[in-house]
Amino acid sequence: MKYMEIRDLIDSELKKYSHNQLIPSERYLAMKYHCSRETIRKAYEQLRAEDKIYKVQNVGWFVSNKKIQYYPTSTDNFNGYVSAQGFKIRTELISTHIVKDFEGIQHFDIAHQEQGFVEIVRLRYADDVPVLLSYNYLPLKLFPNILEHDIISSVQEVVMHQYNVPYTSSQLKIKNTAVAKEDLHHLGVPPNQTAIYIERISKSSDQVIEYDVEIWPQDKIEMNLDIQG
């Protein structure tokens, strides 16, 4: 059987499964349909291209959930816009470090660069599926002892309410790129899958107060942009 025939057979079977449910392995389906695993793999890759399934490395293939709607112009944080879309959310703190150098440091004042930054790495979940790996960098000069606050759920809330520093503007750079090897494990995506990479430079008045990077598996979000005419 050709892989597109297999794809059609698998697609009809997907209706029996729930969102985020594990589906049969390539090996099992190869035996069921009397074909090679390569044929099954090509059929699964076709269904993934259609956003019907996704793969978690070293685990298997799952039925896709609805995608998170991402609005680049929105000032709402992850907790706000993802929970508003009906997802169950949680956040895991991966690490915190004091760093002197990182990609994006050139956007900060020299005085801030000299005193160093706190790096906060978090993994975000929607309906118990890892959907976002975030790296936040904040200058220690502006936010001393920031790790004493609840930075797990929202760095933005801590900055605004504990340090009385408002976010007034941000600059975003969005690109589709390969996932770095060290991030694959956290997001559970295979090496050949690309990700949406969002770099954000946040300001309070004219001063840069935060630099962060968001890494989203490409099959987890849809970009939306409202343009007023």
From TrEMBL:
Q: Where is the HTH gntR-type domain?
A: 1-66
Q: Which UniProt keywords apply?
A: DNA-binding, Transcription, Transcription regulation
**Keyword Ligase: yes or no?**
no
InterPro entries associated with the record: Bact_HTH_transcr_reg, Chorismate_lyase_/UTRA_dom_sf, Tscrpt_reg_HTH_GntR, UTRA, WH-like_DNA-bd_sf, WH_DNA-bd_sf
- Domain of life, per lineage: Bacteria
Q: Which GO terms describe its biological process?
A: negative regulation of DNA-templated transcription
Q: Which PROSITE patterns match?
A: HTH_GNTR
Q: Which CDD domains match?
A: WHTH_GntR (cd07377)
A molecular-function term among this protein's GO annotations: DNA-binding transcription factor activity
Q: Does the keyword Ribonucleoprotein apply?
A: no
> What Pfam families does this protein's entry cite?
GntR, UTRA
PANTHER family found in the cross-reference section:
MANNOSYL-D-GLYCERATE TRANSPORT/METABOLISM SYSTEM REPRESSOR MNGR-RELATED, MANNOSYL-D-GLYCERATE TRANSPORT_METABOLISM SYSTEM REPRESSOR MNGR-RELATED
Which protein, by its recorded name, is this?
GntR family transcriptional regulator
